[in-house]
């Protein structure tokens, strides 16, 4: 059906009255839609803007504005002395499809995803809630010294420094790279200089760039089983096959069959295994390093929260023990500062420093330079160290409160791991206790208790348990929140 009178057509479409879409916009949209749905054919002549305005009872300006916008976007054309016409926007011909083609779009969207995309979405581990009892891995962001941060930020805004507002230097803002190198040498015994430090948006991006620059599609990577879900997601999405390596009290425990098939990468969290919390023993560390050197394997060390160790000094990094430049070290400010900052760092062997700096720039154009400048000051003025000290004391207190709450409800038959460091505890549950069901029931009651079994690669190897983050729960809420969770666990315990 074609439109006989543009005025009648528009009278049915436009709505007058305060508060809605402006009239000129409504006219523009109605004509545009009519052209796209072929109600107005190419070559059709429109009334002059003066006639249209009079017939619709609107101002001439309103009609002119709508026409001008449509002319600017190519829907209408003016012919000198003749008037305004619908432009010919017929697309170039494309070859016909055969008759039994599948529909182009799937309403659910699922069949549109690539195999890797579908796997990523189906196995997604990310939580829909990022705050509150007992969200693991999230620091108490309410205690972040925002006044200091805002003073440093204002200092940078007061001066006009184009280099902070444009794309960053390859590898990141140099003073931050230098501050991170100093910090890592001193606090984590990492062997590095500023040029080896590459600033990223966090561990996810660090892993992504390592795999993109050093891996080939189809390579394999050993991952701890259980491990951080993000590690598997990034590897899978880049076509790298994760191979599950079980962990025991000393960390990754390779079997003979594993050792006979060297992977391209070994992903490990040696200072604080995620999520179980053990520290990789010295002999396993040495064995991994020797194996990596002799088989030319890359070790990717995830050192996500080693700053928070209670009772004993933080342990040195694996990178610091490496004599053959086989370790890529990843760290983050997500736990020591706040996750929304999205700044992390990657330390690469000296020989790869230039390639990685260029790679990050080429793929992501760096990350937020302005925030990097504030972060550099925050570190060099000593605020970073004192914030960590303060939070460590607080988290140690919260850990004790959670341990006491657990002891109040459960006897020693319940196993607790990860109580020496980090931001969460792992509470082991007996095999007949369905941690997914408990987690769902807890979520319905407003509590996050992430199921341990989801962190394993397969159901066969999985153990049941709950990850309980205490860092972002105010002291007085830990006991009451755990009381509620304990009732849910007990209700499932009998099953
Ligand atoms: C083991 C582990 N690695 C990496 C990350 C993510 O780090 P980022 O925020 O720097 O991407 C997390 C976050 O919880 C984690 O637990």
From TrEMBL:
The keyword Chloroplast belongs to this UniProt entry's keyword annotation: no
One Pfam family here: Aminotran_1_2
Source taxon at top rank: Bacteria
Every HTH gntR-type domain range: 21-89
UniProt KW Magnesium keyword: no
Region entry Disordered, spans: 89-114
Sorted UniProt keywords: Aminotransferase, DNA-binding, Pyridoxal phosphate, Transcription, Transcription regulation, Transferase
Family statement: In the C-terminal section; belongs to the class-I pyridoxal-phosphate-dependent aminotransferase family.
PANTHER family: HTH-TYPE TRANSCRIPTIONAL REGULATORY PROTEIN GABR
Name of the featured protein: PLP-dependent aminotransferase family protein
């Amino acid at each position: 059906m074609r439109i006989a009178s543009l005025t009648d057509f528009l009278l049915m479409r436009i709505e007058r009255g305060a508060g809605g879409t402006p009239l000129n916009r409504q006219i523009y949209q109605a004509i545009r839609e009519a052209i796209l749905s072929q109600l107005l054919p190419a070559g059709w002549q429109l009334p002059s803007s003066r006639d249209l305005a009079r017939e619709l009872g609107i101002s001439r300006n309103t009609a002119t504005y709508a026409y001008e916008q449509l002319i600017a976007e190519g829907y209408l054309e003016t012919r000198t002395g003749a008037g305004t016409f619908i432009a010919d926007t017929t697309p170039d011909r494309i070859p016909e499809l055969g008759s039994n083609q599948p529909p182009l779009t799937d309403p659910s969207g699922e069949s549109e995803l690539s195999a890797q995309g579908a796997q990523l979405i189906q196995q997604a581990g990310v939580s829909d809630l990022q705050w509150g009892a007992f969200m693991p891995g999230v620091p108490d962001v309410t205690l972040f010294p925002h006044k200091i941060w805002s003073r440093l930020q204002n200092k940078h805004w007061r001066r006009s420094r184009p280099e902070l507002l444009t794309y960053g230097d390859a590898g990141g803002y140099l003073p931050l790279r230098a501050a991170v190198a100093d910090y890592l040498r001193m606090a984590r015994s990492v062997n590095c200089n500023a040029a080896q430090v590459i600033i990223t948006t966090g561990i996810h991006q660090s892993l992504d760039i390592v795999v993109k620059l050093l891996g080939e599609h189809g390579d394999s990577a050993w991952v701890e089983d259980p491990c951080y879900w993000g590690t598997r997601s990034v590897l899978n999405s880049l076509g790298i096959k994760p191979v599950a390596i079980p962990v025991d009290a000393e960390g990754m425990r390779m079997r003979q069959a594993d050792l006979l098939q060297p992977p391209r990468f070994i992903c490990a969290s040696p200072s604080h295994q995620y999520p179980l919390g053990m520290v990789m023993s010295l002999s396993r560390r040495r064995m991994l390093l020797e194996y990596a050197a002799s088989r030319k394997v890359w070790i990717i060390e995830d050192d996500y929260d080693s700053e928070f160790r209670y009772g004993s000094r933080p342990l040195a990094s694996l990178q610091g023990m490496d004599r053959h430049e086989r370790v890529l070290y990843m760290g983050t400010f997500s736990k020591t500062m706040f996750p929304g900052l999205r700044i992390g760092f990657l330390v690469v062997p000296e020989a790869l420093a230039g390639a990685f700096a260029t790679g990050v720039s080429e793929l992501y154009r760096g990350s937020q330079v302005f925030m990097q400048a504030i972060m550099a000051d925050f570190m060099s003025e000593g605020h970073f160290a004192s914030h960590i000290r303060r939070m460590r004391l607080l988290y140690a207190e919260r850990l004790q409160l959670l341990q006491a709450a657990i002891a109040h409800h459960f006897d020693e038959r319940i196993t607790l791991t990860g109580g020496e460091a980090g931001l969460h505890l792992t509470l082991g549950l007996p095999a007949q206790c369905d941690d997914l069901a408990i987690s769902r029931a807890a979520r319905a009651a407003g509590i996050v208790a992430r199921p341990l079994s989801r962190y394993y690669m397969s159901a066969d190897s999985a153990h049941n348990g709950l990850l309980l983050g205490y860092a972002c729960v105010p002291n007085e809420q830990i006991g009451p929140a755990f009381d509620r969770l304990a009732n849910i666990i007990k209700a499932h315990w009998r099953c």
